Amino acid sequence: MPVNVDATWAKRAAKAILLIRILVGWVFLSEGIQKFLFPDSLGVGRFAKIGIPWPHVMAPFVGVVEIVCGSLLLIGLVTRLATVPLLVDIAVAMYSTKIVTFAKNGFWGTLHEGRTDLSMLLGLIFLLLVGGGTSSLDAWLVQRRDRIHG
After folding, report:
1. Distance between terminal CA atoms of the chain?
2. Cβ distance 65 to 32 under 8 Å?
3. Consecutive 10-residue runs of the chain (150 residues): their mean pLDDT?
4. Can you list the pairs that 34-39 forms with residues at least 24 positions away whose Cβ atoms lie under 8 Å?
């Protein structure tokens, strides 16, 4: 019985995309929740400390964006669209925190401190490029639409 290489590759790719969605979605969802659970260290207080304007508005706003978009990534709904606000979020986070780290800790210290941010940035870019994959609500909705509209 011949092995269908394309089908095997597609199954592995679907699993890999699902893992990236879970990884990136979970990190943003949990970080968004923590902005509300620990406002002094991760929410309003942190935003004020690093100089984000209007921290009492921006911290809850960013927390909600991370919760909503992280959840959308987890279920694979409007995956590409959900990455856009998170890309802005992570870009602002990297700019506002890693510039200070670089001046204080140098190149290697900044690489160490920025590893999660860089991983999230690359994961988001990956999901923006490939979408939610076949194990996503996006794919299910497309299949459903195609069945209905023939």
Report:
1. 32
2. yes
3. 73 94 98 98 96 96 98 98 98 89 86 92 98 94 89
4. 35/59, 35/60, 35/62, 35/63, 35/66, 36/60, 36/63
